[in-house]
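Sample entry (610 residues):
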Amino acid sequence: MKRNKSYNKSLCMVMTAAALLMPGLASAVETLTPLVVTADRVAEDPGRVSADVTVIERKQIERSQKTTVADVLRSQSGIDVVSQGGPGKLTSVFLRGANSGQTLVLIDGVRVGSATAGSFDWANLSTADIERIEIVRGPQSSLYGADAMGGVIQIFTRKGAGKLRIQGLAEGGSYRSGKTGLNVSGKADNGISYAFGVDGLSTKGISAVANTAERDPYRRVTGTAHVTAPLADGEVELLIRNVNGRTSLDNGFGPSDKSNFNNKTRQTVSSIKLSMPFADMLDSSLQLSRSTDISNGSDPLTSFNNSDFRTDIDQLSWLNHADFDALSLLTGFEWRRDKGFSSSAKLDKAFIQNSFFGGASYSADLFAASASVRYDANSASSNKTTYKFGGVLHPLDGLKLTANYGTGFKPPSINALFFPNFSNPNLKPEESKGWDAGLHYVYKASDAALGFDIVWFDQRFANLIASLAPSYLPKNVNKARTSGLELSARIDWEPVYLRANWTFLHAVNSIDGTRLQRRAKDKGSFVFGTDMAGVNLEVQHDIVGPRFSKTGNRKLMKGYRKTDIRARYALSKQLALLARVENVENKTYEEVSGFGVLGRAWYAGVNAAF
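Predicted structure, serialized as tokens:
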């Protein structure tokens, strides 16, 4: 009971701060708003989009000084992020209470993740080359197909623009950590834009198992090339991105401390995309891509930990978009092949999915409406049809009311269908249906802006796959329901700003009423910052409520608070000094029962741009 009062007190403090800042708002003026791409698979005015979308721009990422996208997502509403033992260890993201494999992850339109495990490991995704992140909450399978049950998170990498720009970063700090990066970008006179980047991180880290002395180090190197060239009236875009990681691990079945268990990972994205307008109102794009996920575990003391898995996701996407001002039409076709190989598990299987989809949206001054439908034919499991309806109402300037209803699905993974002795070829796809309703308000002034969002949501999941004793063969046996309320607010009043959000989540197993593991009942994040005289200073305070680490309400993990402080000082237009302290109070807490987290950590660095 005391813990809940503490959370409510923090929430009241944020609301009080908002009330004190609001009197400074002046008369409203029009400003340009960035377009949203992921919600409708086309660039769209946010005012016409019914889906609950959060856009994280490059400036916000740089201010946060976070080194991984997962750490950026931790402070977003409706998202739980858990890591099994510090930097480089398996990291999962739960969006609105959905399982980690029920959120589709895209990098520049390319589907990523492990086809064998059926989910994406966020541990190695660096922020160094990221330009923007878009989070779309709620079922989105009607446009994106498999896995988009909880929503879609799309990461956009940097593109070149303007004159040649060279940017470098060097940083060091606690746990014998070091980070370096170099990015070169620009646009040539012939219209070819380019962005090349490389960054590396190394740390001695902590022991993956809590309360032991042996450290489990981690190293990561990321390289990216993003080139766009004009072609007739359109353009061709090439992306190549490669991440190599190496981390030491501890036995996750105890967990127990081990000094010889290592894992090497490689995540690669390659894509070529042709975009071409055929008329003033019609454009088409064709994208051919491959994402590769490789994981090799080695342990000279225990052969059980030795493993090798490689998965490839090949995809061809064809989109056609017709825009008639108020009416927008989208049609598309996708072909996809998921392939998994493991010599240690004697696994070599693949399945193919063909998909057809279409969407329409209509927008007027006071309202907008959208609908989409998709058919997915899968060579290894049941075919699925999904749909979604959305509406937007603008009763007042700056006020947007939204409502959505949609369905989603996730086909069984390659492991669930084909893994020797632990699979079931008769599995059905997991299914979901859900709705959300929101109130969104934005008020902009000459020197200030205010915005807040309130979203209610409810989603039901069926045919969930679980492996139960005594056979431990996967079966469609579980049901779940997630519902809740997401609150967020943002205030900009030069030279200070405030970002705050709070999520109330009820995520339960519908069969026995127990809570879903590792989802906090309530959580919030508050960022107070200032830009003044070349100094950017931010204080972030995160609060996470109690969770159960295991199913069946087992292994209760207490709630916790954590504060981070970061500063950036611009010595000149070309040179800036960086410093931050994470976990200022040196709090001890758990994200997964039995696994460690970083204590207080100090970092300092320099950023140069020419």
